[in-house]
Amino acid sequence: MTNNDVLKKLRVALKLRDDDIVEILKLVDFKVSKSELGAFFRKEDHPNYMECGDQILRNFLNGLVIYYRGTRDNPKDTNTTLPRPKKSAATKPSQKPRFKEQQKRKIDHDITSVKYKNKKKS
Questions:
Q1: Where is the composition biased (Basic and acidic residues) (predicted)?
Q2: What is the percent of the chain where pLDDT is above 90?
Q3: Which of 4, 75, 90, 106 is 20 to 30 A from 34, alpha carbon to alpha carbon?
Q4: What pLDDT does 81 receive?
Q5: Cα–Cα dist 8/16, whole Å
Q6: Range of 57's domain?
Q7: Do the domain assignments include residue 111?
């Protein structure tokens, strides 16, 4: 997996736009234009593709830490800045069963073989 792949996956997972990534890199005093970012996100066979170096990825990760946590001297409140994962429906015991699940319970699964009128004889 290349640095470009890591950068792409983080961008998608954190729902970041190009403006956000430029802002994150500015937090660590690293200037990158939107067109350079676009070159990192292109396919490898594209003529304007650029390989993402270790320095860019390292600065992005350091900036990401500052973006979400803040600095040591000025920490951010983690309850408001970090996205919380949604609780799944399976963890709530008081939730009513879904309609489809109720219908599946009502179906008689012990069906004997039935002769059909339009079935082709082989």
A1: 98-112
A2: 48
A3: 75
A4: 56
A5: 10
A6: 3-81
A7: no
User: Cα separation of 41 and 24, whole Å?
Assistant: 17
| Cβ neighbours of 24 (radius 10 Å) | 23
**Residues paired with residue 75 on neighbouring β-strands, in sequence order:** 70
Convert the pLDDT of each residue in 33-45 to its tens digit. Answer: 999 999 999 999 9
Pair of tokens at residue 55:
């320095």
**What are the start-end ranges of the H helices in 1-122?**
3-13, 18-27, 34-40, 54-69, 78-81, 99-106
In a domain? residue 93: no
Cα first-last separation, the chain: 55
Do the domain assignments include residue 104?
Answer: no
What's the total number of domains in the chain? 1
Q: Using CA atoms, how far apart are residues 42 and 49, in angstroms rounded to an integer?
A: 6
Q: What is the tens place of the pLDDT at every residue in 59-94?
A: 999 999 998 888 777 777 766 555 556 666 555 556
